[in-house]
Protein backbone atom coordinates (compact mmCIF):
# COMPACT_ATOMS: atom_id res chain seq x y z
CA UNK A 1 0.00 0.00 0.00
CA UNK A 2 3.15 2.21 -0.15
CA UNK A 3 2.75 3.51 3.40
CA UNK A 4 6.39 3.78 4.43
CA UNK A 5 8.33 1.64 6.89
CA UNK A 6 7.11 3.27 10.12
CA UNK A 7 3.44 3.36 9.12
CA UNK A 8 3.55 -0.19 7.75
CA UNK A 9 5.16 -1.49 10.95
CA UNK A 10 2.50 0.20 13.08
CA UNK A 11 -0.28 -1.18 10.87
CA UNK A 12 1.00 -4.71 11.49
CA UNK A 13 1.51 -4.30 15.24
CA UNK A 14 -1.83 -2.52 15.72
CA UNK A 15 -3.58 -5.35 13.88
CA UNK A 16 -1.86 -8.03 15.96
CA UNK A 17 -2.41 -6.10 19.19
CA UNK A 18 -6.10 -5.70 18.41
CA UNK A 19 -6.42 -9.41 17.61
CA UNK A 20 -5.08 -10.38 21.03
CA UNK A 21 -6.95 -7.75 23.04
CA UNK A 22 -10.20 -8.83 21.39
CA UNK A 23 -9.59 -12.29 22.85
CA UNK A 24 -10.71 -10.75 26.16
CA UNK A 25 -13.93 -9.58 24.52
CA UNK A 26 -14.45 -12.98 22.93
CA UNK A 27 -13.88 -14.73 26.25
CA UNK A 28 -16.33 -12.41 28.01
CA UNK A 29 -19.00 -12.98 25.35
CA UNK A 30 -18.48 -16.76 25.45
CA UNK A 31 -18.53 -17.02 29.25
CA UNK A 32 -21.44 -14.65 29.81
CA UNK A 33 -23.78 -14.66 26.80
CA UNK A 34 -23.28 -17.04 23.88
CA UNK A 35 -21.26 -19.98 25.11
CA UNK A 36 -18.13 -21.22 23.35
CA UNK A 37 -19.88 -23.11 20.53
CA UNK A 38 -21.85 -20.14 19.19
CA UNK A 39 -18.89 -17.82 19.80
CA UNK A 40 -16.65 -20.01 17.62
CA UNK A 41 -19.25 -20.28 14.84
CA UNK A 42 -20.05 -16.56 14.77
CA UNK A 43 -16.48 -15.26 15.04
CA UNK A 44 -15.17 -17.76 12.47
CA UNK A 45 -17.75 -16.35 10.06
CA UNK A 46 -16.58 -12.82 10.86
CA UNK A 47 -12.95 -13.85 10.32
CA UNK A 48 -13.81 -15.44 6.95
CA UNK A 49 -15.63 -12.24 5.96
CA UNK A 50 -12.60 -10.11 6.85
CA UNK A 51 -10.18 -12.26 4.85
CA UNK A 52 -12.64 -12.32 1.93
CA UNK A 53 -12.69 -8.50 1.87
CA UNK A 54 -8.88 -8.56 2.00
CA UNK A 55 -8.81 -10.96 -0.95
CA UNK A 56 -11.17 -8.76 -2.98
CA UNK A 57 -9.01 -5.70 -2.25
CA UNK A 58 -6.04 -7.44 -3.91
CA UNK A 59 -8.08 -8.41 -6.99
CA UNK A 60 -9.98 -5.19 -7.78
CA UNK A 61 -7.48 -2.67 -9.27
CA UNK A 62 -9.29 0.38 -7.87
CA UNK A 63 -8.84 -0.93 -4.32
CA UNK A 64 -5.04 -0.88 -4.42
CA UNK A 65 -2.47 1.68 -5.58
CA UNK A 66 -0.50 1.08 -8.79
CA UNK A 67 2.81 -0.71 -8.53
CA UNK A 68 5.95 1.34 -7.96
CA UNK A 69 8.33 1.87 -10.84
CA UNK A 70 11.83 0.50 -10.49
CA UNK A 71 14.63 2.68 -9.25
CA UNK A 72 13.58 4.87 -6.35
CA UNK A 73 10.80 5.33 -3.83
CA UNK A 74 9.65 8.63 -5.33
CA UNK A 75 7.44 7.28 -8.16
CA UNK A 76 5.33 5.28 -5.67
CA UNK A 77 1.77 6.57 -5.39
CA UNK A 78 0.42 6.25 -1.86
CA UNK A 79 -2.92 4.64 -1.09
CA UNK A 80 -6.08 6.72 -1.31
CA UNK A 81 -8.52 7.14 1.54
CA UNK A 82 -10.95 4.66 -0.03
CA UNK A 83 -8.25 2.04 -0.45
CA UNK A 84 -7.07 2.40 3.15
CA UNK A 85 -10.66 2.26 4.41
CA UNK A 86 -11.24 -1.08 2.67
CA UNK A 87 -7.90 -2.38 3.98
CA UNK A 88 -8.64 -1.44 7.59
CA UNK A 89 -12.18 -2.86 7.40
CA UNK A 90 -10.70 -6.14 6.20
CA UNK A 91 -7.93 -6.19 8.81
CA UNK A 92 -10.09 -5.37 11.80
CA UNK A 93 -12.92 -7.71 10.79
CA UNK A 94 -10.22 -10.38 10.66
CA UNK A 95 -8.88 -9.23 14.04
CA UNK A 96 -12.36 -9.39 15.58
CA UNK A 97 -12.93 -12.89 14.25
CA UNK A 98 -9.48 -14.04 15.34
CA UNK A 99 -10.02 -12.71 18.85
CA UNK A 100 -13.27 -14.61 19.26
CA UNK A 101 -11.77 -17.82 17.89
CA UNK A 102 -8.62 -17.72 20.04
CA UNK A 103 -10.69 -17.22 23.18
CA UNK A 104 -13.04 -20.13 22.53
CA UNK A 105 -11.43 -22.95 20.57
CA UNK A 106 -9.10 -24.41 23.22
CA UNK A 107 -11.70 -24.02 25.96
CA UNK A 108 -14.41 -25.69 23.87
CA UNK A 109 -12.01 -28.54 23.15
CA UNK A 110 -11.38 -29.06 26.86
CA UNK A 111 -15.16 -29.03 27.45
CA UNK A 112 -15.39 -32.30 25.52
CA UNK A 113 -13.54 -34.15 28.28
CA UNK A 114 -14.67 -35.00 31.80
CA UNK A 115 -11.87 -33.81 34.07
CA UNK A 116 -13.09 -36.09 36.88
CA UNK A 117 -12.54 -39.20 34.73
CA UNK A 118 -8.92 -40.40 34.68
CA UNK A 119 -9.11 -41.79 31.16
CA UNK A 120 -10.69 -38.64 29.73
CA UNK A 121 -8.24 -36.45 31.64
CA UNK A 122 -5.42 -38.33 29.91
CA UNK A 123 -7.18 -37.89 26.56
CA UNK A 124 -7.50 -34.16 27.23
CA UNK A 125 -3.73 -33.89 27.70
CA UNK A 126 -3.28 -35.61 24.33
CA UNK A 127 -5.83 -33.26 22.79
CA UNK A 128 -3.84 -30.19 23.87
CA UNK A 129 -0.62 -31.71 22.56
CA UNK A 130 -2.19 -32.26 19.15
CA UNK A 131 -3.97 -28.90 19.32
CA UNK A 132 -0.72 -26.96 19.74
CA UNK A 133 1.02 -29.26 17.24
CA UNK A 134 -1.44 -28.39 14.48
CA UNK A 135 -1.28 -24.68 15.40
CA UNK A 136 2.49 -24.86 14.91
CA UNK A 137 2.04 -26.68 11.60
CA UNK A 138 -0.40 -23.99 10.48
CA UNK A 139 1.98 -21.21 11.49
CA UNK A 140 4.85 -22.90 9.69
CA UNK A 141 2.75 -23.36 6.53
CA UNK A 142 1.67 -19.71 6.66
CA UNK A 143 5.22 -18.33 6.70
CA UNK A 144 6.59 -20.78 4.14
CA UNK A 145 4.06 -22.21 1.65
CA UNK A 146 1.58 -19.30 1.67
CA UNK A 147 4.31 -16.65 1.56
CA UNK A 148 5.93 -18.45 -1.38
CA UNK A 149 2.57 -18.58 -3.20
CA UNK A 150 1.93 -14.88 -2.54
CA UNK A 151 5.38 -13.87 -3.76
CA UNK A 152 5.21 -15.96 -6.95
CA UNK A 153 1.50 -16.13 -7.86
CA UNK A 154 0.06 -13.08 -6.13
CA UNK A 155 -1.39 -12.15 -2.76
CA UNK A 156 -4.92 -12.89 -3.92
CA UNK A 157 -4.02 -16.59 -4.14
CA UNK A 158 -2.60 -16.66 -0.61
CA UNK A 159 -5.57 -14.83 0.89
CA UNK A 160 -8.01 -16.91 -1.15
CA UNK A 161 -6.51 -20.13 0.21
CA UNK A 162 -6.93 -18.73 3.74
CA UNK A 163 -10.63 -18.04 3.10
CA UNK A 164 -11.16 -21.57 1.81
CA UNK A 165 -9.33 -23.02 4.82
CA UNK A 166 -11.44 -21.02 7.29
CA UNK A 167 -14.72 -21.98 5.58
CA UNK A 168 -13.68 -25.63 5.39
CA UNK A 169 -12.72 -25.60 9.06
CA UNK A 170 -16.06 -24.04 9.99
CA UNK A 171 -17.95 -26.71 8.02
CA UNK A 172 -16.01 -29.48 9.76
CA UNK A 173 -16.65 -27.84 13.12
CA UNK A 174 -20.40 -27.53 12.52
CA UNK A 175 -20.63 -31.11 11.23
CA UNK A 176 -19.83 -32.43 14.69
CA UNK A 177 -22.53 -30.42 16.49
CA UNK A 178 -24.60 -33.45 17.57
CA UNK A 179 -21.58 -35.09 19.20
CA UNK A 180 -20.36 -32.12 21.24
CA UNK A 181 -20.74 -31.63 24.97
CA UNK A 182 -22.06 -28.24 26.00
CA UNK A 183 -21.41 -26.72 29.41
CA UNK A 184 -23.56 -24.14 31.15
CA UNK A 185 -22.48 -20.51 31.18
CA UNK A 186 -20.47 -19.74 34.31
CA UNK A 187 -20.07 -15.99 33.88
CA UNK A 188 -16.90 -14.01 33.34
CA UNK A 189 -14.36 -13.33 36.11
CA UNK A 190 -14.27 -9.75 34.81
CA UNK A 191 -17.78 -9.39 36.24
CA UNK A 192 -16.53 -10.46 39.67
CA UNK A 193 -13.63 -8.01 39.55
CA UNK A 194 -15.91 -5.18 38.48
CA UNK A 195 -18.43 -6.14 41.18
CA UNK A 196 -15.81 -5.96 43.95
CA UNK A 197 -14.60 -2.52 42.85
CA UNK A 198 -18.14 -1.15 42.46
CA UNK A 199 -19.23 -2.50 45.86
CA UNK A 200 -16.09 -1.10 47.53
CA UNK A 201 -16.69 2.30 45.94
CA UNK A 202 -20.31 2.38 47.07
CA UNK A 203 -19.19 1.69 50.66
CA UNK A 204 -16.07 3.84 50.62
CA UNK A 205 -17.40 5.99 53.49
CA UNK A 206 -18.22 3.04 55.75
CA UNK A 207 -15.84 1.89 58.49
CA UNK A 208 -14.36 -1.60 58.45
CA UNK A 209 -15.24 -3.63 61.55
CA UNK A 210 -12.35 -4.62 63.78
CA UNK A 211 -13.77 -8.15 63.90
CA UNK A 212 -13.28 -9.53 60.38
CA UNK A 213 -15.76 -12.34 61.00
CA UNK A 214 -18.48 -9.72 60.67
CA UNK A 215 -17.61 -9.28 57.00
CA UNK A 216 -19.71 -11.13 54.44
CA UNK A 217 -18.12 -14.43 53.37
CA UNK A 218 -18.93 -17.73 51.69
CA UNK A 219 -20.35 -19.18 54.91
CA UNK A 220 -23.04 -16.50 54.86
CA UNK A 221 -24.39 -17.67 51.50
CA UNK A 222 -27.76 -19.34 51.92
CA UNK A 223 -28.12 -23.12 51.61
CA UNK A 224 -29.74 -22.87 48.21
CA UNK A 225 -26.45 -21.69 46.74
CA UNK A 226 -24.08 -24.02 48.55
CA UNK A 227 -23.28 -25.91 45.38
CA UNK A 228 -21.62 -22.74 44.09
CA UNK A 229 -19.59 -22.10 47.22
CA UNK A 230 -15.90 -21.41 46.90
CA UNK A 231 -13.11 -22.47 49.21
CA UNK A 232 -12.82 -19.76 51.85
CA UNK A 233 -9.61 -17.74 51.70
CA UNK A 234 -7.97 -15.97 54.66
CA UNK A 235 -7.92 -12.19 54.90
CA UNK A 236 -4.67 -10.53 53.85
CA UNK A 237 -3.36 -7.17 55.00
CA UNK A 238 -0.70 -6.76 52.33
CA UNK A 239 -2.84 -4.97 49.75
CA UNK A 240 -6.34 -3.88 48.87
CA UNK A 241 -7.51 -2.38 52.19
CA UNK A 242 -10.01 -0.30 50.23
CA UNK A 243 -11.42 -3.42 48.54
CA UNK A 244 -12.24 -4.99 51.93
CA UNK A 245 -15.14 -2.56 52.19
CA UNK A 246 -16.92 -4.50 49.43
CA UNK A 247 -17.60 -7.21 52.05
CA UNK A 248 -19.14 -4.89 54.66
CA UNK A 249 -22.75 -5.87 55.35
CA UNK A 250 -25.07 -2.89 55.45
CA UNK A 251 -27.36 -3.63 58.45
CA UNK A 252 -30.23 -1.80 56.77
CA UNK A 253 -30.33 -3.80 53.56
CA UNK A 254 -27.98 -6.79 53.92
CA UNK A 255 -28.13 -7.66 57.57
CA UNK A 256 -30.55 -10.58 57.53
CA UNK A 257 -30.03 -14.14 56.34
CA UNK A 258 -32.95 -13.84 53.95
CA UNK A 259 -31.80 -10.55 52.49
CA UNK A 260 -31.35 -10.51 48.71
CA UNK A 261 -27.68 -9.97 47.90
CA UNK A 262 -26.81 -7.66 45.00
CA UNK A 263 -23.36 -8.56 43.62
CA UNK A 264 -22.80 -4.90 42.74
CA UNK A 265 -23.32 -3.87 46.37
CA UNK A 266 -21.90 -6.77 48.38
CA UNK A 267 -19.09 -9.25 47.71
CA UNK A 268 -17.82 -12.09 49.85
CA UNK A 269 -14.46 -11.61 51.55
CA UNK A 270 -13.22 -14.56 49.49
CA UNK A 271 -14.21 -12.76 46.28
CA UNK A 272 -12.26 -9.74 47.53
CA UNK A 273 -9.21 -11.88 48.30
CA UNK A 274 -9.35 -13.41 44.83
CA UNK A 275 -9.28 -9.94 43.31
CA UNK A 276 -6.32 -9.09 45.56
CA UNK A 277 -4.51 -12.13 44.15
CA UNK A 278 -4.96 -10.71 40.67
CA UNK A 279 -3.65 -7.31 41.84
CA UNK A 280 -0.53 -8.94 43.35
CA UNK A 281 0.29 -10.41 39.95
CA UNK A 282 0.08 -7.10 38.10
CA UNK A 283 3.75 -6.06 38.61
CA UNK A 284 4.87 -9.38 37.08
CA UNK A 285 2.25 -8.99 34.36
CA UNK A 286 3.44 -5.46 33.51
CA UNK A 287 7.12 -6.37 33.26
CA UNK A 288 6.46 -9.18 30.76
CA UNK A 289 4.92 -6.82 28.20
CA UNK A 290 8.34 -5.64 26.98
CA UNK A 291 9.24 -9.10 25.70
CA UNK A 292 6.34 -9.03 23.24
CA UNK A 293 7.37 -5.53 22.13
CA UNK A 294 10.70 -7.09 21.13
CA UNK A 295 8.84 -9.97 19.52
CA UNK A 296 6.89 -7.51 17.37
CA UNK A 297 10.09 -6.31 15.69
CA UNK A 298 10.62 -9.76 14.19
CA UNK A 299 7.37 -9.41 12.23
CA UNK A 300 8.06 -5.88 11.00
CA UNK A 301 11.52 -4.31 10.69
CA UNK A 302 13.40 -7.61 10.57
CA UNK A 303 11.37 -8.53 7.49
CA UNK A 304 12.22 -5.12 5.99
CA UNK A 305 15.91 -5.87 6.57
CA UNK A 306 15.56 -9.23 4.85
CA UNK A 307 14.10 -7.69 1.67
CA UNK A 308 17.39 -5.87 0.99
CA UNK A 309 19.74 -8.82 1.63
CA UNK A 310 20.94 -11.79 -0.41
CA UNK A 311 18.20 -14.40 0.04
CA UNK A 312 19.37 -16.94 -2.54
CA UNK A 313 19.94 -20.61 -1.80
CA UNK A 314 21.74 -22.01 -4.80
CA UNK A 315 21.22 -20.38 -8.18
CA UNK A 316 17.44 -20.46 -8.51
CA UNK A 317 15.65 -20.52 -5.15
CA UNK A 318 15.12 -17.27 -3.24
CA UNK A 319 13.78 -17.22 0.33
CA UNK A 320 10.71 -14.96 0.72
CA UNK A 321 11.50 -12.31 3.38
CA UNK A 322 8.48 -13.16 5.54
CA UNK A 323 9.52 -16.83 5.61
CA UNK A 324 12.40 -15.98 7.93
CA UNK A 325 9.90 -16.10 10.79
CA UNK A 326 10.06 -19.88 10.32
CA UNK A 327 13.22 -19.66 12.43
CA UNK A 328 10.88 -18.92 15.35
CA UNK A 329 9.42 -22.39 15.07
CA UNK A 330 12.84 -23.94 14.57
CA UNK A 331 14.33 -22.30 17.65
CA UNK A 332 11.30 -23.27 19.76
CA UNK A 333 11.49 -26.88 18.57
CA UNK A 334 15.17 -26.87 19.49
CA UNK A 335 14.82 -25.08 22.84
CA UNK A 336 11.98 -27.17 24.31
CA UNK A 337 13.78 -30.56 24.17
CA UNK A 338 17.06 -28.98 25.32
CA UNK A 339 15.20 -27.52 28.29
CA UNK A 340 13.47 -30.81 29.14
CA UNK A 341 16.50 -33.06 28.66
CA UNK A 342 19.40 -30.89 29.83
CA UNK A 343 18.35 -27.74 31.70
CA UNK A 344 15.68 -29.34 33.91
CA UNK A 345 17.94 -32.13 35.31
CA UNK A 346 20.76 -29.68 36.00
CA UNK A 347 18.48 -27.05 37.55
CA UNK A 348 16.70 -29.74 39.58
CA UNK A 349 19.97 -30.64 41.29
CA UNK A 350 21.25 -27.09 41.70
CA UNK A 351 18.00 -25.46 42.84
CA UNK A 352 16.36 -28.45 44.58
CA UNK A 353 13.24 -27.80 42.52
CA UNK A 354 11.60 -30.88 40.93
CA UNK A 355 10.33 -28.71 38.05
CA UNK A 356 13.79 -27.38 37.24
CA UNK A 357 13.05 -23.68 36.91
CA UNK A 358 10.12 -21.94 38.57
CA UNK A 359 7.68 -20.01 36.35
CA UNK A 360 9.24 -16.69 37.37
CA UNK A 361 12.73 -17.99 36.57
CA UNK A 362 11.55 -19.10 33.14
CA UNK A 363 10.12 -15.66 32.48
CA UNK A 364 13.41 -14.10 33.58
CA UNK A 365 15.36 -16.26 31.11
CA UNK A 366 12.97 -15.18 28.35
CA UNK A 367 13.59 -11.51 29.17
CA UNK A 368 17.36 -12.06 29.04
CA UNK A 369 17.02 -13.63 25.59
CA UNK A 370 15.03 -10.61 24.41
CA UNK A 371 17.98 -8.34 25.30
CA UNK A 372 20.38 -10.62 23.40
CA UNK A 373 18.08 -10.51 20.36
CA UNK A 374 18.11 -6.72 20.18
CA UNK A 375 21.89 -6.56 20.60
CA UNK A 376 22.25 -9.11 17.78
CA UNK A 377 19.74 -7.16 15.65
CA UNK A 378 21.61 -3.87 16.17
CA UNK A 379 24.99 -5.40 15.30
CA UNK A 380 23.56 -7.08 12.20
CA UNK A 381 21.95 -3.83 11.04
CA UNK A 382 25.27 -1.99 11.46
CA UNK A 383 26.95 -4.67 9.34
CA UNK A 384 24.18 -4.45 6.71
CA UNK A 385 24.45 -0.65 6.52
CA UNK A 386 28.25 -0.83 6.19
CA UNK A 387 27.86 -3.30 3.32
CA UNK A 388 25.34 -0.99 1.62
CA UNK A 389 27.71 1.99 1.91
CA UNK A 390 30.72 0.00 0.74
CA UNK A 391 28.92 -0.99 -2.46
CA UNK A 392 27.24 2.39 -3.04
CA UNK A 393 23.71 1.02 -2.61
CA UNK A 394 22.32 3.37 0.03
CA UNK A 395 20.34 5.35 -2.53
CA UNK A 396 18.54 2.33 -3.99
CA UNK A 397 16.10 0.65 -1.57
CA UNK A 398 15.42 -2.21 -4.00
CA UNK A 399 19.05 -3.14 -4.59
CA UNK A 400 20.28 -6.45 -3.22
CA UNK A 401 23.07 -5.91 -0.71
CA UNK A 402 25.77 -8.61 -0.99
CA UNK A 403 25.22 -9.82 2.56
CA UNK A 404 23.57 -13.15 3.35
CA UNK A 405 20.12 -12.99 4.92
CA UNK A 406 21.26 -15.67 7.37
CA UNK A 407 22.98 -12.91 9.36
CA UNK A 408 19.46 -12.23 10.67
CA UNK A 409 19.11 -15.74 12.10
CA UNK A 410 20.61 -14.91 15.55
CA UNK A 411 17.97 -12.28 16.34
CA UNK A 412 15.19 -14.67 15.28
CA UNK A 413 16.80 -17.49 17.25
CA UNK A 414 17.10 -15.48 20.47
CA UNK A 415 13.49 -14.28 20.29
CA UNK A 416 12.23 -17.78 19.44
CA UNK A 417 14.20 -19.38 22.27
CA UNK A 418 13.06 -16.61 24.59
CA UNK A 419 9.47 -17.25 23.56
CA UNK A 420 9.81 -20.92 24.54
CA UNK A 421 10.72 -19.82 28.07
CA UNK A 422 8.38 -16.82 28.23
CA UNK A 423 5.27 -18.45 26.75
CA UNK A 424 5.32 -21.50 29.00
CA UNK A 425 6.53 -19.51 32.00
CA UNK A 426 3.73 -16.96 31.71
CA UNK A 427 0.99 -19.54 31.20
CA UNK A 428 2.32 -21.63 34.09
CA UNK A 429 2.57 -18.60 36.37
CA UNK A 430 -0.87 -17.18 35.61
CA UNK A 431 -2.55 -20.60 35.73
CA UNK A 432 -0.99 -21.46 39.10
CA UNK A 433 -1.45 -18.07 40.70
CA UNK A 434 -4.94 -17.15 39.49
CA UNK A 435 -7.64 -17.98 42.07
CA UNK A 436 -9.41 -21.29 41.55
CA UNK A 437 -12.68 -19.52 40.82
CA UNK A 438 -11.10 -17.24 38.19
CA UNK A 439 -9.05 -19.65 36.11
CA UNK A 440 -10.16 -18.15 32.81
CA UNK A 441 -8.29 -15.01 33.88
CA UNK A 442 -5.00 -16.87 33.36
CA UNK A 443 -5.46 -16.90 29.60
CA UNK A 444 -6.78 -13.33 29.64
CA UNK A 445 -3.79 -11.99 31.54
CA UNK A 446 -1.39 -13.81 29.24
CA UNK A 447 -3.02 -12.66 25.99
CA UNK A 448 -3.23 -9.08 27.23
CA UNK A 449 0.57 -8.95 27.58
CA UNK A 450 0.91 -9.94 23.92
CA UNK A 451 -1.61 -7.33 22.88
CA UNK A 452 -0.03 -4.53 24.90
CA UNK A 453 3.41 -5.55 23.67
CA UNK A 454 2.34 -4.90 20.08
CA UNK A 455 0.66 -1.63 21.03
CA UNK A 456 3.76 -0.47 22.93
CA UNK A 457 5.78 -1.22 19.80
CA UNK A 458 3.42 0.99 17.77
CA UNK A 459 3.70 3.76 20.37
CA UNK A 460 7.51 3.62 20.44
CA UNK A 461 7.74 3.67 16.65
CA UNK A 462 5.39 6.67 16.45
CA UNK A 463 7.27 8.60 19.15
CA UNK A 464 10.70 7.87 17.69
CA UNK A 465 9.53 8.71 14.17
CA UNK A 466 8.10 12.02 15.40
CA UNK A 467 11.22 12.94 17.40
CA UNK A 468 13.80 12.03 14.76
CA UNK A 469 11.80 13.81 12.04
CA UNK A 470 12.78 13.89 8.38
CA UNK A 471 16.35 15.19 8.70
CA UNK A 472 17.92 12.15 10.33
CA UNK A 473 15.05 9.65 10.49
CA UNK A 474 15.50 6.30 12.16
CA UNK A 475 12.67 4.88 10.02
CA UNK A 476 13.33 6.23 6.54
CA UNK A 477 11.17 4.90 3.70
CA UNK A 478 14.48 3.83 2.22
CA UNK A 479 15.75 1.57 5.00
CA UNK A 480 19.31 2.03 3.72
CA UNK A 481 19.17 5.71 4.67
CA UNK A 482 17.66 5.25 8.14
CA UNK A 483 19.08 4.43 11.55
CA UNK A 484 17.23 1.27 12.44
CA UNK A 485 20.22 0.12 14.48
CA UNK A 486 19.66 3.00 16.91
CA UNK A 487 16.08 1.82 17.45
CA UNK A 488 17.35 -1.67 18.21
CA UNK A 489 19.87 -0.24 20.70
CA UNK A 490 17.05 1.72 22.33
CA UNK A 491 14.96 -1.45 22.68
CA UNK A 492 17.96 -3.31 24.13
CA UNK A 493 18.37 -0.55 26.75
CA UNK A 494 14.66 -0.51 27.60
CA UNK A 495 14.66 -4.30 27.87
CA UNK A 496 17.63 -4.22 30.23
CA UNK A 497 15.91 -1.64 32.46
CA UNK A 498 12.72 -3.70 32.34
CA UNK A 499 14.68 -6.78 33.42
CA UNK A 500 16.00 -4.94 36.49
CA UNK A 501 12.45 -3.93 37.47
CA UNK A 502 11.25 -7.48 36.84
CA UNK A 503 13.92 -8.95 39.13
CA UNK A 504 12.77 -6.69 41.97
CA UNK A 505 9.13 -7.67 41.37
CA UNK A 506 9.94 -11.38 41.13
CA UNK A 507 12.00 -11.25 44.33
CA UNK A 508 9.09 -9.51 46.11
CA UNK A 509 6.43 -11.92 44.88
CA UNK A 510 5.38 -14.84 47.10
CA UNK A 511 3.74 -17.81 45.38
CA UNK A 512 0.11 -18.48 46.26
CA UNK A 513 0.62 -21.97 47.68
CA UNK A 514 3.43 -20.78 49.96
CA UNK A 515 1.44 -17.75 51.11
CA UNK A 516 -1.64 -19.84 51.91
CA UNK A 517 0.45 -22.55 53.58
CA UNK A 518 1.75 -19.93 55.99
CA UNK A 519 -1.89 -19.20 56.84
CA UNK A 520 -2.58 -22.90 57.40
CA UNK A 521 -4.75 -23.17 54.27
CA UNK A 522 -4.38 -26.16 51.97
CA UNK A 523 -5.82 -25.77 48.48
CA UNK A 524 -8.59 -28.21 47.69
CA UNK A 525 -7.40 -28.75 44.15
CA UNK A 526 -4.00 -28.38 42.56
CA UNK A 527 -4.14 -27.60 38.86
CA UNK A 528 -1.22 -28.22 36.59
CA UNK A 529 -0.23 -26.52 33.41
CA UNK A 530 -0.43 -28.57 30.20
CA UNK A 531 2.78 -27.95 28.30
Automatic annotation (TrEMBL):
Entry-linked Pfam families: PTR2 (PF00854)
Localization terms from the record: Membrane
GO molecular function: transmembrane transporter activity
Keyword Heme: no
Taxonomic superkingdom: Eukaryota
Record membrane topology: Multi-pass membrane protein
Transmembrane regions listed in the UniProt entry: 12-30, 36-60, 127-149, 155-174, 277-298, 318-339, 360-379, 405-424, 445-467, 487-510
GO biological process: oligopeptide transport
Family label: Belongs to the major facilitator superfamily. Proton-dependent oligopeptide transporter (POT/PTR) (TC 2.A.17) family.
PANTHER family, sorted: OLIGOPEPTIDE TRANSPORTER-RELATED
Protein's recorded name: Protein NRT1/ PTR FAMILY 6.3-like
Organism per entry: Pyrus ussuriensis x Pyrus communis
Amino acid sequence: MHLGNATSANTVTNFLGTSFILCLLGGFVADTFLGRYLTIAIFATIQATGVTVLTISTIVPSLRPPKCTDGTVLPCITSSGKQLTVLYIALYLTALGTGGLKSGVSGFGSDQFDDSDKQERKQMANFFNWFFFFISIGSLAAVTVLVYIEDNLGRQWGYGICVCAIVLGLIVFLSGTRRYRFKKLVGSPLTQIAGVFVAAWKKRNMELPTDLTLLYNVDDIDDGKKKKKKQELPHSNSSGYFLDKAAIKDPKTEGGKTAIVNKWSLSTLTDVEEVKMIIRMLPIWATTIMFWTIYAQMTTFSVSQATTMNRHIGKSFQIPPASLTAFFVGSILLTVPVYDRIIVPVARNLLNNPQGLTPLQRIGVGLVFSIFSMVAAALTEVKRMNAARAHGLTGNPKAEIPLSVFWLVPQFFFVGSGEAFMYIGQLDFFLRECPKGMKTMSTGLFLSTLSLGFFVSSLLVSLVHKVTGDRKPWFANNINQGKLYDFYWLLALLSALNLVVYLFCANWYVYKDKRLAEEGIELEEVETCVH
